[in-house]
Amino acid sequence: MYRFLMSRQWVILALITLLLIPTMIRLGIWQMHRYEMRSARNQLVTNALHAKPVPVETISTPGHAVTRTEKYRTVTATGTFEASKEVVVRRRTNDDDEVGFHVLTPFVLTDGKVVLINRGWIPANGAQTAFPKIPAPPSGRTTITGRLMADETTAASGIKDIKGLPDRQIMLINSEEQAKRLHAQVLGGYVEQTAPEAKGGTPEQISDPGKEDAPLNYAYMIQWWLFAAAVPVGYVVLARREARDRREAAAKEQETEQAEPATV
């Protein structure tokens, strides 16, 4: 009754089944790797955000490339803002997806080196060709706290570094480029300021980084492996159903032949 499995239709179905099983297993493994990668990244962010604050100059130096383990690390800096040399970063959004600018202000440390401080977001308020009105930072010597961030690149952010922008406007935050503009020793990376909060709530502070949805990848992993297990089961069920239908059809045909009167 299972000779039909050698038919062209069932051979093709068997080949598809044999192809689907390893494909689904590999997709499940890929989702497992995605889950592990995202979980590790989330843990790095959590560890960095909850680590004891350290002076920024103990982590970063001029030309330093901020690493994955250093990114989001809470740092402090003591010095003076240079508001006259600040620039704005175009096409940045706030938590409500409103388009505006990030305010990037040089911060001169006590040893004369400079660290770039992203003071937060301000609305565009009309045309973006003119330099916007920005609330002044604290004057005199002050201490700020923030998250250490890596230099932005087009490859990492997907943001194109457009040239010929209006004066004091940039697309990407890059310490090396700013060092050339300021003619100063600028620490690698930059700091997203979290304290003290700006008077009047502007610039609007940048929210803590969100966590990636690692459990979703875990669910997809389980789903693909369940599919891989279900495929051969489905093939067997279909084959047994086909065999049963053939047996029933053969039995009915035999009953019909037995019920017909013999011809003389």
UniProtKB/TrEMBL annotation:
Keywords: Cell membrane, Membrane, Transmembrane, Transmembrane helix. Pfam families: SURF1 (PF02104). PROSITE patterns: SURF1. Coiled coil: none annotated. Belongs to the SURF1 family. It comes from Streptomyces hokutonensis. The chain crosses the membrane at residues 218-238. It comes from the Bacteria. It is a multi-pass membrane protein. This is SURF1-like protein. Its main location: membrane. It is found in: Cell membrane; Membrane.
